[in-house]
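Repro:
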Amino acid sequence: MSTTDMPLSHRTPRAGIKDWLNRAEAWLDARGKPAWIAAMVLGFIAFWPVGLALLAYMIWSKRMFSKSCRSRTARVSPFTTMRSSGNSAFDAYKTETLRRLEDEQRAFESFLERLRDAKDKAEFDQFMDDRAAKARETGATENGNGTDNGPNGDKDAA
């Protein structure tokens, strides 16, 4: 090995500011948009040009809007199910399956409606029975023996 092949320094090369910034960017990207916003706020608190530089970088690199815009376009519209796939056999299967599911949903909703009506009727009947029992109870306790006699025990008190 000649002296020209040997490194002059036995130290490992230092990580420069660019490498540090790349690692910081990767770290913030791994934690998402809230980490970027927190870094920007801390930058404004510590030294306002740093916060301003982070804000400009976030806007320039589209980090502020990337995920929110992507998630809006990823939503499925309700008309997607009506669109033809181009395959008539699949479209017929899809139509039949959707019709069957709609029929099942209607049947289930009518069952739930009947169940609710029966429960309401049972609750109302229970209320009326309790009310009638309470009326009989208060009528019996007012007169002492449950009959509608006058103060002397006569039926014709007047």
